[in-house]
Specification:
The protein is of the alpha/beta class. Strand 1 and strand 2 form a beta hairpin. Helix 7 runs parallel beside helix 8 and helix 13 crosses helix 21. The radius of gyration is 26 Å and the shape is globular.
Length: 529
């Protein structure tokens, strides 16, 4: 019987259905058979044996493909994960202790959103996570850069070290800071075989090569000496810190929610990988630096593309804000679930307002971005509240603050009287700084209203997110993940990874010369265990 006759009784649709069924199960090996007159076909073992027995020629076998294998295996070994996937540290407690716990239980790496929280709240969150997870290593907490307040950064690191937080994500840093180096170097030891061991792992979240470079290098000598002189590091820790990078995990943040440079991952990630390779070779490190991909990761295709670009792990942020474990209110999560890819905008950041730094936020259903930009324009144009023209001032008081600017300053002053009295003293000397504090208070509260679900302030909600959220919503539409009550961090991650494995398998088959239909590069979410 000729090989061609094997296919004479089947239609093209039947053949496509058989291929699609095989591609949908990437954990099964696929055999590549050369069929005269038809070219290469891909088939599971049972069908391949029949085709080969009737004249087909075996050209190769694609081994099983597991979601666990998409990234760097060392990442999983070092951090105690099953999957090369990080649930990112959405600030102000949006990445809750519950979210971190559920991520870790699902075999993911989870980071607590401790940025912007006071130390007592951060300590309580860390304690809750450690009490539940015990000695597991696949979690951490966030240290965010606090301009002009190095003491706060150092106090946060002290808390992390005292409570033995196994990993720390350093975000929004524009330069290496002593607090980061202290965490990275604390607890460094050398085993009898010469291997240097870390007590805590630094994940550096960066979007610029010049910022990434110091994290990939050993800690600066002057910084190590100062930390040792202050009693934060031992002589042995200083010596070992000279031989390893500050961070062995560097997360490349592309177009993301919150602080972002809006750079495309396809341009940024390869450049970071090249910098990593050059640095590792120059420093002769005993083990590699891992590069992660973040920003724009909201669909299986995006996950597959990130790994194809060379990412060792992926990190998701925006899409987890709509998850049931999120610290956002149900009202804010509902707004997120309705967002499209274009429903985001840039707005001034509360923590770096005077510097003109911006964050990416939800635009649909809220006027926050527009109102925040108005405040920035007023701040740039005037020297203080008193110099704001009456008509502009009236609009600010009516539409944004819903009270007089004097009342807004009184509230702000009362807050800083206990939080940071030095700010009040400076505001009394500098009218422009007083105006900045009042405007920053609105930006701060806009995020708080979204977390609390203060619906009378819905138009002022500040919700950090990037276009990945809209892409996720489009992908989830019509599936079990469309209702926000079904969105858990575990199901989100498992479906993204499973879909990425299916898409990766389809691409593998196509590169072998098999005619693969476009529909093979789609994956519909389904409940996964």
């Amino acid at each position: 019987m000729a090989v061609d006759s094997i296919f004479e009784t089947t239609t093209d649709d039947d053949q496509t259905s058989m291929l699609m069924a095989a591609l949908a199960h990437p954990r099964q090996p696929l055999h590549l058979i050369d069929v005269p007159g038809r070219g290469i076909v891909a088939a599971p073992a049972t069908e391949a044996a029949t085709i080969e027995a009737r004249g087909g020629t075996r050209r190769g076998i694609l081994p099983p493909l597991y979601p666990e294998w998409l990234g760097d295996r060392q990442f999983a070994e070092v951090h105690g994960c099953r999957f090369p996937y990080v649930v990112g540290e959405m600030a102000r407690g949006i990445a809750t202790p519950r979210m971190v716990i559920e991520a870790a239980r699902a075999g993911l790496m989870g980071f607590y959103g401790s940025a912007g929280l006071d130390l007592a709240t951060t300590a309580a969150g860390v304690d809750a996570i450690r009490t539940t997870l015990g000695a597991t290593a696949n979690w951490g907490a966030n240290l965010i850069h606090t301009p002009g307040d190095a003491d706060r950064e150092m106090a946060t690191v002290s808390l992390f070290l005292d409570r033995r937080v196994p990993a720390m994500s350093a975000s929004a840093f524009m330069a290496l800071a002593p607090a980061v180096v202290r965490y990275a170097a604390s607890g460094l030891t050398r085993s009898s075989d010469g291997t240097i061991h870390r007590r805590g792992s630094v994940f550096a979240k960066v979007s610029r090569l010049e910022v990434a470079a110091p994290f990939m290098a050993p800690a600066p000598e002057a910084m190590l000496r100062d930390l040792a002189a202050a009693g934060h590091l031992t002589a042995a820790e200083v010596d070992l810190a000279r031989q390893v990078p500050v961070a062995e995990d560097v997360t490349v943040e592309a177009d993301s929610g919150g602080h972002t440079d809006n750079r495309p991952l396809t341009a940024l990630l390869p450049a970071m990988c090249q910098l990593r390779d050059t640095t590792v070779e120059a420093q002769v490190y005993p083990r590699p630096i891992r590069i992660g991909a973040a920003g724009g990761i909201g669909t299986p295709g995006a996950v597959a593309a990130a790994f194809a670009l060379g990412a060792d792990y992926v990190l998701t942020g925006s899409i987890n804000q709509a998850a049931v474990e999120s610290g956002l209110s149900a009202d804010a999560r509902a707004l997120l679930a309705a967002a499209g890819i274009a429903d985001v905008a840039m707005a001034p950041a509360a923590d770096m307002f005077e510097l003109g730094i911006q964050v990416q936020v939800l635009k649909r259903g809220t006027l926050f971005a527009q109102r925040a930009r108005t405040l920035w324009s007023v701040y740039r144009a005037h020297d203080g509240i008193e110099s704001i023209p009456a008509d502009v001032r009236h609009k600010l008081e009516t539409d944004i603050f819903r009270e007089s600017l004097e009342q807004a300053w009184a509230r702000t002053r009362a807050y800083f009287a206990t939080a940071d009295p030095d700010e009040i003293a400076r505001a009394d000397r500098e009218p422009k700084h007083r105006m900045a504090l009042v405007f920053r208070a609105y930006l701060f509260m806009a995020a708080q209203w979204a977390r609390e679900g203060q619906t009378d302030r819905r138009v002022d909600y500040q919700i950090w997110c990037g276009p990945a959220l809209g892409a996720f919503n489009d992908w989830a539409r019509g599936s079990f993940l469309e209702p926000i009550d079904h969105r858990t961090v575990a199901q989100i991650a498992r479906n993204l990874l499973e879909g990425a494995a299916v898409i990766t398998r389809a691409q593998q088959v196509r590169t072998c010369g098999v005619d693969v239909p476009a529909t093979a590069f789609a994956f519909t979410p389904r409940p996964l265990r």
